[in-house]
Amino acid sequence: MATVALKDVTKVFPDGTIAVDNVNLDVGDGEFMVLLGPSGCGKSTVLRMVAGLEDPTSGAIVLDGELANDLAPRDRKIAMVFQDFALYPHMTVGDNIGFPLRLSGVDAEPRSERVADVASALGIGDVLGRRPSQLSGGQRQRVAMGRAIVRRPGLFLMDEPLSNLDSGLRAELRAEISGLTRELGVTTLYVTHDQAEALTMADRVAIMRRGVLQDVGTPTQVYGRPATLYVAAFLGAPRMNLLEAQVYVHLDRHIALHMGEQTLYLPWNDIRARAVAHYHGERIVVGMRAEALVPVPVDTEGDVLRGRIRYLEHHGHESLAFLDIGAYAVIVDDIGGTPPEVAGPRGLRRFGNLVKRVAGRGGEQEL
Ligand code: ATP
């Protein structure tokens, strides 16, 4: 069993860089937690502090319920996989995988049995006699994984382990890694800046920005109900539409969202109306995923925005339409078979993913 908890963890480097700013995070036993964020946001520093390769400036690293700040890396029962697999070039695959066992004094026979088991689980049983230079990138990555799991660690720490591979192999290996860690029941903390990797592999995703933890939740939660505007804009391609609106709760029990030149009317019994009702008189930001916007005929009444198609972008399996809706441009997924040469007004119905107040009580949120 292995759990990880970071409590008020801050890391300030000697040059004054605040790499990690008061982060609190719990990783459950057997959980696959992905740390996601842009380059330089502090993900690797978090991982290195959990590994014991970096000391927190303040706060607690708790492993299995015990304060681990002063625990040496080798006493933390963790295995780390980095992006530059760092295999020993002069050793065979089998010796590379078995190396941690040799270090801890496991005899040759049980060692080669364990190596064979691990190699076969990773699909590299037939290359045990080769050297790393005789392997493909994907095979080398599997060897690195094998070397990490051979000691049956309670906790896996992985720092962008797939970033040096081509995209096809990355997709294949991400399924393998998440499958394998689940099979082994190993708690995993996985760092990446690739949101597709994060959303497909994680049980939960922790999103960081400039050292600060922005949101933690299942992929569905952080995608559908982002905690901050930053997360709303960061996750998803195309980017979520974010429109400012002024909220008015009308006496006849409907809600009007004034957005630039347009007003969106929501009936009171609409779940989205209730979500914004308590912002009466305030300016909020409404978040709408492209796929949540549905084109409807121009004469449709009700909760409809009107826009003019500026251009269409074809992506093979889908088309994105970029529309002007007065003060704003929005992106709509699949405009409903409209041929590219037709640019006309469209009504847009239905929006989801309501986001946050920007102004008023909460103050402006910086994107
Ligand atoms: P990447 O995805 O590029 O690896 P990251 O999110 O993992 O980025 P970190 O490597 O944790 O980011 O770095 C966080 C911040 O701390 C960055 O601004 C980085 O420049 C800084 N930093 C990292 N190591 C040191 C160090 N030893 N001394 C000073 N600053 C550092």
Automatic annotation (TrEMBL):
| Keyword terms | ATP-binding, Nucleotide-binding, Transport
Q: Which GO terms describe its biological process?
A: carbohydrate transport
Full-protein interval shown:
1 to 367 of 448
| Biological source species | Rugosimonospora africana
Limits of the ABC transporter domain: 4-235
Record flagged with keyword Ribonucleoprotein: no
**Entry's Gene Ontology cellular component terms:** ATP-binding cassette (ABC) transporter complex, substrate-binding subunit-containing
Asked if the keyword ATP-binding belongs to this entry, the reply reads: yes
Which protein, by its recorded name, is this? Answer: Sugar ABC transporter ATP-binding protein
**What terms describe the molecular function in GO for this protein?**
ABC-type transporter activity; ATP binding; ATP hydrolysis activity
Superkingdom of source: Bacteria
